[in-house]
Amino acid sequence: MADTKREIERKYESDDSGLPDLTGVAVVADVLDKGTAELDATYYDTSDLRLAAASITLRRRTGGHDAGWHLKLPVAPGVRDEIQVPLSDTVPDELAGLVRARIREGQLVPVVRLRSTRDLRDLVDSDGRQLAEVGVDTVRAERLFGGEGTAQWTEIEVELADGGNPALLDKVEKRLRKAGVRPSKSTSKLARALAETKGGHPRPKDEPAEPVTAGDHVLAYVRAQRDAIVDLDPAVRQDTEESVHDMRVATRRLRSTFTSFRTVLDRKVTDPIGDELKWLAGELGVGRDHEVLAEHLGTVLDELPPTLLHGPVRDRLGAWSKAEYGGARRRLLGVLDSPRYLTLLDTLDAVVAEPPVLKAAAKKPDKVLAEAVRKDFAKVSALIEEAMGQPPGTDRDLGLHEARKKAKRTRYAAEAATPALGGPARTLTKSMKSLQSLLGDHQDSVMVRTTLGELSAVAHAAGEDTFTYGLLYGREERRAARVEETLPETWRTIRGSTEI
Questions:
Q1: What's the pLDDT score for residue 324?
Q2: Residue 322: its pLDDT value, please?
Q3: Residues in domain CHAD (predicted)?
Q4: Fewer Cβ in 10 A, N or C end of the chain?
């Protein structure tokens, strides 16, 4: 069973002069000697060091209080999530799955062995509570794959205790700097070992030049969404809050970009990719849409007075939610391990590496991007007008749903264009987000009513009182009606503020 913890730490170079006295730093009342530990860690990566290139480390370590397999995923500078799994002879499937989006079909092999003697100390407050752990590590590195040679160094590592105040690390660093200790140039022991032994290094990410042309701006947005999908993959597998939603948004942004900027990127290449992104967004949406519906219905039930709750409505909703969620979760995990998904990631890499650009890509961004955004906005306008011309009912519902989808596309196109177009694109992005939210409330009402109808039918067949389902259905009808009443004025305001 995996155990995940947030690791906040800083590393420092050491010249073997030892650790300066940290007593009295901030609220540090004492420094407790915890003795030494002998650590032996073997780091795994692909032959071309894909994990190291992404600042990800996977190791099998013995010795110390946390022997086992450790996967560290970057969160922010100095902050990583560490997933720990008990010792085994081979890479645990659970951890291999969490790096699948990085390694694809690549094989994980031992690349570096690090043996460290760690001199441990605890920084504690006046009540004896641990504030941070400080380790002085004497490290011996041996290259196992893709090179040869050894390296040796000493470093100081300061890790904040769980729930500790990050400001403490600033105070500790100030004391260390006064003693002549400097922050490490390497982000991890593995990075330093790879740099100081003979052999291949992880190829640094190519830093794209400042966008100049229309193509530069579009590709910068494409690259950001590709990176978001890959970065979010481990979080989705771990069922981290909002991760499925965020990955789904990234796939939609990417697909919308291919559609909106067809004068910049060759649609003969991007249209098939768009189809695959639509498939992925659909798979991500199976569980997400259900989760939103269940949360909404649960909230509404909590707000109802007990006298209006007839029959086992809450129990039936809970059973429906549990059954739907379990099936959707298993299906999604299968999708993330499927050849189709991994092929899509490879295809996105290829598009970023060798963009299928057209002539318009070389032009200045102002005209090209503005024209694309205006076309998307015009489609939203036409759909809003058409939908509101329909009488309340199914046709209007479908029309407003289509308008919502086009509003999303326009929002994403404006986002991509904002670095080039500035204020007008930023304003349109906000307007489309507001419109999308309003129309989203309407569509959610449609979906909730459909769900209530299905649950009511099952309850009726079981001989249960369906009064509450009808009550909730009526409330959702009024919710949709309020949106339709608000929409005309909202739309007039948006049209009047659009300058692109």
A1: 74
A2: 82
A3: 211-496
A4: N
Beta carbons of 316 and 452 less than 8 angstroms apart: no
Q: Hey, CA dihedral for 232, 237, 238, 244, is it positive or negative?
A: positive
Please tell me the distance from the alpha carbon of residue 6 to that of residue 386, in angstroms, as a whole number. Answer: 51
Pure H helices in 197-262: 214-237, 243-260
Angle at 443 between CA 440 and CA 446, to 5 degrees: 155
* Alpha-carbon distance values, 458 to 320, 354, 410 (Å): 11, 54, 40
Token pair listed for 168: 């403490």
| pLDDT at res. 16 | 66
Using CA atoms, how far apart are residues 426 and 428, in angstroms rounded to an integer?
Answer: 5
Who's near 102: CB < 8 A, 6+ residues apart? Answer: 50, 51, 54, 56, 230
C-alpha separations of 453 from 105, 272, 316, 444, 469 in Å:
45, 37, 13, 14, 8
| pLDDT at residue 204, rounded to an integer | 63
Q: pLDDT digits over 156-196, tens only?
A: 999 999 999 999 999 999 999 999 999 999 989 999 999 99
Which one, of 63, 415, 25, 19, lies nearest residue 217 by Cα? 415
Contact 20, 176 (CB under 8 A): yes
What letter would DSSP give residue 391? P
Q: What is the dihedral of CA 266, 272, 275, 281, to 10 degrees?
A: -80
In three-state secondary structure terms, 249 is: helix
Q: Which residue, chain included where needed, has tokens 């530990």? A: 37
**Out of 63-77, 85-99, 313-327, 445-459, least confident range:** 313-327
What is the pLDDT, as a whole number, of residue 314?
92
| Torsion over CA: 259, 275, 383, 224 (sign) | negative
For the stretch 319-372, pLDDT in tens is: 888 877 778 888 999 999 999 999 999 999 999 999 999 999 999 999 999 999
Structure tokens at 149: 């040679």
pLDDT > 90: percent of the chain = 87
